[in-house]
Structures are given as C-alpha cells and as structure tokens.
C-alpha cells in the first residue's frame, strides 16, 4: 500500500486533462491532490470523478486557483464561502479535506497521521519589515503582480493575510492535539519553509508563496514529510530531518508529455530513509 501525491493538475488545459484521464488505477493506494486542480468547482469535480474510482482514497487541499472567482464560472462564491463549497463537494465524493479529522496511515511504518492543511500566504516571504502594501509595491517594481490579487476575493476577511492568520491559528491548535508517538505527513499547497521558494527568474513572486508562521511547526511537531506544490518546480529536499516534496505537474510547458502523468506521481509513503546529516537537496525532478 502506497501514498502518492500530485499537485497543480491545472485541468483547464486540455493536454493536462487528457493525460490525467489516462492515469492507471491504483486501487490499494491513496492519492494526495495538492491544490490548483483548476479554477472552477467543475474542474475539481471532474478530477474527483475520474480518479475517485481508481484509488482507495483521495485527499484534497485547495490551491490559489481553486479560490479564484472568475466571470466564466457560474459558481460566483467568494472567499470562505467558495472554500466551503469546495469542501462540501469533496465530502460528498468521499474525499478528505483540511476540515476533516486527520486519518492514521493504514500502511506499513510507524503510526503516522496524514494531515491536509489550508494555510495560504501573508506576504511575509517578502523583505522583512515591510507592510503588505509595501511588499506589493516592491514586487510591482519588477513588474510582478500576482493574478491572485485580482481574482481572490477573500471575504469576509479584508485580505488574504488575515485569512491566513486565522488558518495558522486553527491549524496550530490541531497540531497541538496530535497524540504522543504519532508522526505527521503535512499537506499544503504552499511550502512551509521560505528557503524552499527558489524562484530564480521571478524572485519577487515569493510573497504569494507562503508564510513564515509555519516554519517553527517543523521543529515543534513530529513532522516527517511535507507535501506541497504551487511553485511548479518539482523537487525533494531534506531540511533538519524533514523531507519536503514539491509534487506539481504544472502547465503543459512544465512537464514532458511523452513521459505521461504517471511519471510525475510522487511516492510519499513508504519513503526513503533520511540522509545521515538530515540535510540534502534540492533533487530536481524532471
Ligand atoms: Fe499551480
Ligand atoms: Fe498555486
């Protein structure tokens, strides 16, 4: 029995959609869907319909794209209401979400909880000491303006940083309740450490990639693995004994169609042993 992961399926692209439809069945296994499945609830529903019968269990976390409210989408829900609509859609399909109890991994290995999270970003990956507006101006100086600013309407919060703070608080409370002796696999669309955001071509996109509030969790709680996406730069890194797996597929230009989507499924559990120093990487995944 294995735990697999894939994020950033972006099925609005017919190339991605057709390739995902070809994925073989793994009826004994679980599959993590790490966010950015698409921009509409129909995109999410399509993936759950196609893959639901091929895996024993699916787990979903939202990405920024699922939170977009666009003119083309008949579901005109914003912010929290939109997220809750997607959670309901997943639950009706039997898919685990960040709002559900974290299941214990039934496969081999030490007792391990699989924890889908929804902790977005708060601009703290920008230069220290700047306000949110100053961070956005700093990015705009190099012509970086995230589409999120136009399409995410984070109601009832004034901005996504406030929504993020609320998510940090409730997630931390759940982490404190993990029983002693249980290990953790954390799943979040955005990375949980700032030093994993290696945007060589667009470094000023970093403010839309996470929050510095999550990094202390990796020392404070018994985390073995973090599964994330969003960067569209697949990698494996070991940091302080924790394995960080960026598992995105991405837009058609980000993956080799001749390899097929199966090539991009990342095995999370069982996992490899930690390197002796607890540090290695990045191992880029082509
Ligand atoms: Fe993405
Ligand atoms: Fe994303």
Q: Helicity, in percent?
A: 10-25%
Largest sheet, in brief, is: 6 strands, mixed
CATH fold group: Purple Acid Phosphatase, chain A, domain 2
- The rough form would be described as globular
Estimated radius of gyration: 18 Å
Structure commentary:
This protein is an alpha/beta fold. The chain has a single domain (3-271), classed as Purple Acid Phosphatase, chain A, domain 2, CATH 3.60.21. The chain has helices at residues 14-21, 41-52, 79-92, 132-140, 148-151, 160-176, 217-220; strands spanning 3-6, 26-33, 55-60, 112-116, 183-187, 223-228, 235-239, 242-246, 266-269, 280-284. The strands form 2 sheets. Strands 4-5-6-8-7-10 form a 6-stranded mixed beta sheet. Strands 3-2-1-9 form a 4-stranded mixed beta sheet, covered by helices on one side. The two termini are 25 Å apart. 39% of the residues are buried. The structure holds fe (ii) ion (2 copies).
Notable traits:
6-stranded mixed beta sheet, 10 strands, 19% strand, 4-stranded mixed beta sheet, binds fe (ii) ion, Purple Acid Phosphatase, chain A, domain 2, alpha/beta, globular, 286 residues
